[in-house]
## 1
Amino acid sequence: MAIVVITLLFGACKYDFILPEEIPDPNDPNTDEVKFSEQVLPIFTNNNNCTACHDTGGQIPDLTAGNAYNAINNTRYLNSVNPEQSRIYTVAHPDTDGHKQKKYTATQAAVILTWIKQGAKNN
């Protein structure tokens, strides 16, 4: 009987913990450099997240893989003086009502803001 009880105590329960997303701090100067091609572009293109509407010939800006950087690299979408006011960040931000379709997750918004604060490089 003791063996059964010990077996049930140590072998019956299994927990798979779901860890929360780690949100980068855009104001931390020690944050690793955000790479456009590896971290920002997939926000737009994975699962047609943005490219379902923002594709070549569709809604501007064109956020397809070959055109996204050039399409958003202007003062209409990027504000280097006040990155928090950049349209590429604010329009689909999770806390805004400005975009009725898909929105960024909090992590995606932080990645985009960090990228802008780091100079919005085509890297």
## 2
Amino acid sequence: MHPMLNIAITAARSSGNIIRRAFSRLDELNVTQKANNDYVSEVDRMAEDEILRTIRKAYPDHGVLAEESGDSGSNGHSHFRWIIDPLDGTTNFLHGFPHFAVSIGLQRDNQPEVAVVYNPISEELFTASRGDGAQLNNRRIRVSSRRSLQGGLLGTGFPFRDHQHLDAYLATFKALLVETAGIRRPGSAALDLAYVAAGRIDGFWEIGLSPWDIAAGVLLVREAGGIVGDFTGGDNYLNSGNILAASPKVFAAMLSTITPHLTEELRR
């Protein structure tokens, strides 16, 4: 196993223990609002601190981009950067809805190198390292073999923070809904991408995500045989926040279906 993947797993499990313990005392937590419909709890910060402690102990010179503490570390001198979301799905967590995850991705020279997405409640651990495939609890996973949208199950996320693209999003939602067996919105992009990698859903799309929401999931999907792109089919999703991920045939079908409904801004 990739040595940096081992560190990521250790960090995810340790922070997951903090999250799991806090899940039994939600009414005692201190919660603040960062932005419209965007909340952070003391657990997010505690979990992130634990991840950073584990990573910096092993790799003190690596760069870090983390949701709560931002950019830190190497000042651009390291080839490595960790991209961390200590609790993806905070709103689910705060409502006692057991669908959230720790997401840890590592880039080497801006290319995804290792990935961990961990649900501390179900104890499902999704892992990947570049060139070595993707696993769920140490068993190899693959994207679905579906060849079209017909009969497919998709995942998505609503643009809940910023409603400027809501009309365009709803148009893509309608266009895909009528072509598929259904669409799910569980509330954690990291787990949605992990589910694409595991073949549980055939594809996923969302507008306006942050790098820490998707950095780990991107590698999971790719190593499971899937395709990840922005809304032009390119690779600008970490910058734009607009992402589409699916098995190969479904990716092409989703992209052609949503394209007529996108604004010029969403095509960039």
## 3
Amino acid sequence: MEADRIKIRRKEAGAGEHLVLSVHQNPDGSELPLLTFPALTAPGVVHGFSTRLGGVSEGPFSSLNLTFSRGDEREKVLENYRRLAEALGTLPERFVLTRQVHGTNVLHVTKADAGKGVTRERDWDGLDGLVTDTPGLVLSVFSADCVPILFWDPVRRAIGACHSGWRGTVGRIGARVVETMQEEFHTDPKNLICCIGPSICRDCYEIGDDVAERFLEAFPGEETRILENKHNGHWQLDLWAACRIVLTEAGVPDAQIHTTDVCTCCNPELLFSHRAALGGTHGNIGGFIMLQEKESGIG
């Protein structure tokens, strides 16, 4: 297995649990690795973060690219979804995909939305977050350095997922997911388990004065926690810490927020990274979460 030869470069875990790399063997003998959090490895919920390994795409999309919009062959991306679905114990027809614009819109999806973005056309745009209490739906968000966040309410049996780039983090999309789960499912934030997935680390994420100013305005008093001024217009930004602040401010207990120890930019052989690709063509990895079905499927 290709994953066996790749050593994961891990960051010192700031809080929560280390990601676990597991390998699923498909019926055709192919293998597909997934990164998972122990906190979300529990009865009633299925989740995983894909890597760039285990698919059939070629070139800069090699091999488990999950985006249709960057020039990869559609049939190869569909085969990648078939393999991913097998690893998650579901079907491609049950995925629901965002259409990300670095915003803060969150949508409650239901059985009627199954397959949108993979086997059916989406009827939405500008959507960076999803929530549901429908078992069998796979909520899907994508990144190649931005932060994917997964949400699980084991009490109300509801889940959420969002894509939090720097703009979404400034706009507090994580809090918007929590608010939507409160509105739609009567979720108590104190019951939520949240996982901040593989994404770019502080050491790799250099920004300019313009973006730093946005964070200084959005997170007053938290400057030393999320920013390091390298001077001459250069800063290092800690999106992981900023997302954590957003979630705790929304009422999620700090002990129930788990932050990745795997940086996309530090692991270009394992994960797609926009910065590691120097802005060139590349694929996307994804974060996925699904409520398990107790008896029958959703059709």
